[in-house]
Design a protein that fits this description.
Helices cover 66% and strands 1% of the residues. The protein is mainly α. The chain has a two-stranded parallel ribbon with strand order 1-2. The longest helix has 30 residues, at 231-260. It is globular, with a radius of gyration of 22 Å.
């Protein structure tokens, strides 16, 4: 059974590649699942199970046909709506309300500077210290220096800090402006800086996730917009991103060595376990999960936070792990997380709802034009299957604020707001 996901998603990737005449976002998604399925085979054949987040013991591994079929089927259902968008057919992205878009861009840049204020005093100290100790302390629930500093902010500014995760939207806005509108380079540089807020903040907890997430979403934007980038812009992007890429590789290598260096399998084995556990852990959840415990704090985080006062935090995950009888904070793909929260039936309903919502946004295949709101919605939804090779991304109530921002742009895109000066209105009345 361990070979089936790799064969299935490899065939799906080749099929989508041929259908789309090259690399597209849906091909990228399917390729990610084919790659992680290959790493799953390496985990099993290399006897790397039972460690590094892989829940199955290498001596007791039962992979049955039912979870294998469900995994392949519902991952595919999540990918298929994105196959409606062909980059070779897309001619332009329209912006009916440039004032709203500019206001959003400036807002995200301001949030990025707030984030910089919070991390500026402690980032270098963390990077020069014991990364392993910082990571272990964070895993125990200890707050980072930036988190402590944020608590001293005035209430209004502290509330705005909730929009920190929304700064990721600066990434698609950056690509939109650089391809379809002429904006000064200082403004575009600030947008790109804003999009890096989460990776910068992730250093506080010696986290690799945010850098990996940013990289994965950057690639998805590059795939879609590559055809619109001039040679000059590509050259500038390459030169500006090389230092960031090198710094990221050094940082990721240091964190990986700090976390996995003392294991028998070493850092390389830890990375394989890191990337190849999703299918195995999905099957483990299927076999061992107690689905009498239904909870929605990851699927409806805003409601749970403000109404039920329940969050997906370290204490809650420890409580739920005790209920389940196993450690649940592992990578089981996004559908694995949903299944453990809502039961298999709930997972089916959730995946079908995600499919319907995505289809309503994309409407039809071979579209030649998207509104900016539709593209931001496309970007927001695409993060679920793209980063879903690890876990369900939007499990915190902070991400609901990001969804509200996307919905606001999406809805206002349906109308064109015309702003007129008072003297113009008086002249019209005459």
């Amino acid at each position: 059974m361990i070979y089936i996901p790799f064969l299935f998603f490899s065939i799906l990737t080749v099929y989508l590649w041929n259908k789309h005449k090259g690399m597209d976002v849906c091909v990228y998604m399917s390729g990610l699942y084919a790659f992680t399925a290959f790493l799953c085979i390496v985990v099993v054949l290399g006897e790397l199970a039972g460690d590094g987040g892989v829940m199955f013991d290498e001596f007791i591994m039962e992979i049955s046909p039912v979870p294998t079929v469900l995994y392949c089927l519902f991952i595919t259902i999540g990918i298929m709506p994105f196959s409606l968008l062909y980059k070779k057919d897309l001619k332009k992205i329209t912006n009916k309300n440039p004032t709203i878009t500019m206001a959003l861009s400036i807002f995200l840049i301001c949030i990025a500077f707030l984030n910089l204020y919070l991390v500026a005093g402690s980032t270098m100290e963390i990077l020069s210290g014991d990364l392993r100790s910082v990571r272990l302390e964070h895993g125990r629930g200890l707050e980072s220096p930036a988190d402590i500093k944020a608590q001293s902010l005035p209430y209004i500014i502290g509330f705005l800090n909730y929009f920190k995760v929304s700064t990721l939207l600066a990434l698609p806005l950056f690509f939109y402006y650089i391809c379809f509108e002429k904006k000064p380079w200082w403004f575009l540089s600030l947008l790109l800086f804003a999009s890096l807020s989460l990776p910068i903040y992730g250093i506080q907890s010696v986290d690799r996730t945010e850098i990996v997430f940013f990289g994965m979403m950057f690639i998805s934007c590059l795939i879609l917009f590559h055809q619109y980038l001039s040679k000059k812009i590509k050259r500038i992007l390459n030169l500006s991103l090389i230092p960031f890429a090198l710094a990221s590789v050094v940082y990721l290598g240091a964190v990986t060595e700090a976390r996995f260096g003392d294991r028998e399998s070493g850092s390389s084995g830890g990375l394989v376990q890191y990337g190849g556990q999703n299918f195995l852990n999905f099957c483990f959840f299927w076999e061992m999960g107690d689905f009498n415990y239904i909870t929605t704090e990851r699927e409806f985080p805003l409601y749970n936070h403000f109404v039920l006062h329940k969050d997906n935090n370290a204490d809650r995950r420890e409580e739920r792990s005790g209920q389940q009888g196993f450690f649940m904070s592992v990578f089981a793909s996004y559908i694995g997380d949903v299944m453990l929260d809502l039961s298999p039936i709930g997972m089916v309903i959730w995946c079908l709802c995600f499919f319907v919502i995505s289809m309503l946004v994309f409407k039809k295949p071979h579209r030649e034009e998207l509104t900016l709101g539709e593209y931001l919605f496309f970007f927001y939804l695409s993060a679920i299957p793209i980063f879903g090779i690890f876990y369900y991304r939007y499990m915190s109530f902070h991400y609901t604020f990001m969804l509200i921002v996307v919905l606001f742009v999406y809805i206002t895109d349906k109308y064109k707001f015309i702003y007129s000066r008072p003297e113009e209105e008086s002249a019209t009345d005459l």
